[in-house]
Write a structure and sequence with these properties.
It comes from Ruegeria sediminis. Belongs to the TRAP transporter large permease family. By secondary structure, the chain is an all-alpha fold. Helix content is 77%, strand content 0%. It has two domains: 73 residues, no CATH class; 341 residues, no CATH class. The chain has 21 helices and no strands.
């Protein structure tokens, strides 16, 4: 078993040397295939790459990214925060709780956590700091709640997991709804009790509450985007459309909303959106294809079966094994991006999960919940640097410090769904 060790060493060495992750995965996988099958490796590798990407469901990925980028270019994110702030301004810590709500809803609009942090954080953090909120509460609430976009459908990580595992993307979307709501509520409850115990972190709510008419007028800037998302997801859940067909409708609808309602699209802006969408989609697909080469080598030398057999042969109960797996994924998520983590670990861990008697659908949900923690933990936590980019008044060090208590809450909710799988599967089973 010296060859897998060499392959992993090549992978870690290339990553440590600063090589792009797709190159490190593809090259190390090719080295492994060459050691195992000689010159046939140069036939196996392209076949693995093409086989991974030759999936109809993957069409949904660039289309949902395009939909999110288009709506991200509109004032929807800012309008969401303004509306939530008006409805919660009476509450101590209301702006921070409004940030969680706005980020959760924007997650359903964009499906990309970084976009949510940028859109909501650019207005939420300055307003919170201006009204006397602590810097750690302002930064932590934005960075952590932005990660909800990974779990609340339409979710890009769910599409990737579905393509790798063969689990229905529609079922994954349904399964992500309840955990997303629970996590958003948990973050809001944490903020409420935090400011209750430490009143200096947030001022009292406004004594003069906004008129009801003003509150409803604030919803006028978001209803069309929310209706579009409801139609897109509703068509998937009811079986009217596949995720790919719904994504195409969503991208077209987002374009019409940006063009006709918000009137914020120019030729230059449209070209920028298309360019950014192509770059992100291309990068994700390239990582997926190269990670499949690496994963196929591991399958060829039966690494997943060996790991599964070794862990199931221990005297540890299933919940203890899963807890160790979740901790390992949290640590890996601090070093590897979410796409690579899904594509590389799924072929290894899915046989173990099924051997322990768990549902692959449930594992996809808790895996994405785990990735939510990964995007807010250094050194690869993209949400941290996205927040720094839109809020230069914050230091990276204090942003990192601010997310620590929120990460504890996220991990506690993760373990709730790990220890009680039936919670995750209740809504998909119902629908």
């Amino acid at each position: 078993m010296i060859e897998p060790i060499i392959v992993v060493a090549v992978l870690l060495g290339m990553i440590g040397a600063g090589a792009p992750i797709f190159l490190a995965l593809g090259a190390s996988g090719l080295v492994g295939l060459w050691m195992a099958r000689g010159s046939m490796a140069f036939f196996f590798a392209p076949t693995s790459f093409f086989g991974q990407l030759n999936s109809f469901e993957l069409i949904a990925l660039p289309l949902f990214i395009l939909m999110g980028n288009i709506l991200g270019a509109t004032p929807v994110g800012q309008n969401l925060f303004r509306a939530a702030a008006l409805w919660l301004q009476w509450l101590r810590g209301g702006l921070a709780i409004a940030t969680v709500g706005a980020s959760a809803i924007f997650g359903a609009v964009s499906g990309v956590s970084v976009a949510g942090v940028a859109a909501v954080g650019s207005i939420a953090v300055p307003q919170m700091l201006e009204r006397g909120y602590s810097r750690t509460l302002a930064a932590g609430s934005v960075a952590s709640s932005g990660a909800l976009a990974m779990l609340i459908p339409p979710s890009v990580p769910f599409i990737i997991y579905g393509a790798v595992s063969g689990v229905s993307v529609g079922a994954l979307f349904i399964g992500g709804i309840l955990p997303g709501i629970v996590l958003a509520l948990a973050l809001s409850v944490f903020i409420y009790f935090r400011v209750l115990l430490k009143p200096e972190e947030a001022p009292l709510g406004d004594a003069d509450e906004a008129p009801l008419g003003e509150k409803f007028r604030a919803l006028a800037g978001i209803w069309h985007a929310l209706l579009l998302v409801a139609i897109v997801l509703g068509s998937i859940y009811t079986g009217i459309a596949t995720p790919s067909e719904a994504a195409a409708f969503g991208a077209a609808g987002a374009f019409l909303i940006a063009l006709l309602i918000f009137r914020c699209l120019t030729w230059r802006k449209t070209l920028e959106i298309l360019t950014a969408s192509v770059k992100v989609s291309g990068a994700i697909l390239l990582i997926m294809g190269c990670a499949k080469i690496f994963g196929d080598y591991l399958n060829l030398v039966r690494v997943p079966e060996s790991v599964s057999a070794a862990l199931t042969a221990t005297d540890l109960p299933p919940w203890a094994i899963l807890t160790l797996v979740m901790i390992a994924l949290v640590l890996l998520g601090m070093l590897v991006d979410a796409v690579s983590l899904i594509v590389v670990t799924t072929p290894i861990l899915l046989p173990l999960v099924t051997a322990l008697g768990y549902d692959p659908l449930w594992f996809g949900i808790v895996l994405v919940m785990n990735l939510e923690i990964a995007v807010v933990t250094p050194p690869v936590g993209l949400n941290l640097y996205a927040l720094k980019g839109v809020c230069p008044q914050l230091e990276v060090e204090e942003i990192i410090k601010s997310v620590v208590p929120f990460v504890v809450v996220q991990f506690a909710i993760l373990m709730l769904f790990v220890l009680f799988p039936q919670i995750s599967l209740w809504l998909p089973g119902l629908l």
